[in-house]
Design a protein that fits this description.
Blueprint lengths: L21 E3 L10 H4 L5 E2 L12 E2 L9 E5 L5 E9 L3 E9 L6 E8 L5 E8 L4 E6 L7 E5 L6 E8 L4 E6 L2 E6 L11 E7 L9 E11 L11 E4 L6 E6 L5 E7 L4 E7 L3 E5 L6 E8 L5 E8 L1
Antiparallel strand pairs: 1-15, 2-5, 3-4, 4-15, 5-14, 6-11, 6-15, 7-8, 7-14, 8-9, 9-10, 11-12, 12-13, 16-17, 17-20, 18-19, 18-21, 21-22
Amino acid sequence: MKNLLLSISCIALCSLSTAQDISDNFDSYTAGGYLAAQSNGVWTTWTNLPGTDEDTQISSDYAYSGANSAVFATGGSTDIVLPLGAQNSNAWNLSFMMYIPSSYGAYFNMLHEFGQVYNWAFDVFFSATGEGTLYMGGSTSQQTQTFNFAHDQWFSVSVDIDVDADDVTCTVDGNAMNWVWSTASGDPSTQIAALNLYAYAPTGEEGLYYIDDVTFQQTDIGIEELDNLAQVYPNPTKSNLTIDLNTNEVCNLEIYSLLGQSIYSEKLNSSSKTIDCSDWTPGVYFLQITDFSGSVQHTKFIVE
């Protein structure tokens, strides 16, 4: 099933993935069935009871890609958790697409610790007014940042965490918010433990939202993976990505999203190529170069 860990094997990129890389677009699940119960352990619920009222359904009402998404509606006990492997080093990106119908609110949080001890990293509330609030260190924190978002359309949520630098940037519908990652509801911690998608909304509001194209990837894997075939810069990039080949032979260049979608493809007849990435969705991408001898080499780069 393509929603499982290391799910990008269809484009032979598994060798780049770490043990905790996750990619799920929900399209291999049965609509109307439970998410955690179908996920083979990728997803769980707050008390680890897949297939119960804590689990949520796969929906075909809306989807950013393919046919399915996961739906979260208040009125029950839906409380979904994506364990992220208790990461204690390196840099990581968690991203997903989100859809909130008009007149509804939404909510999610991330945790430094999940299981026997619960330690919240931050909480995000989406109001029916189109305004949102991020609470650094959990929902009772006095440290907040505000943003705006659009109803009735898909928008991106991206969380870039540098554990070693103790830094995090959460970008919601283009609004970037930065703070010290170790800020917590309990003792300070830099660990990345889990994403919690709870069917909730600000007080007095009804919650309804959809999630699609969830990814969690390590992002500080360097360009040395290309074995000196090419130099790729700047990485990360906000506009143009330049690829300098250390050969004058013809090479095939392909770029894929984390979900395996082909974004760019070209046969290179020169030793240098600059690609305009300014309109691309922020996130992690895979660069694949096939040289004249048939050798295939890869690297990752980030579009901010």
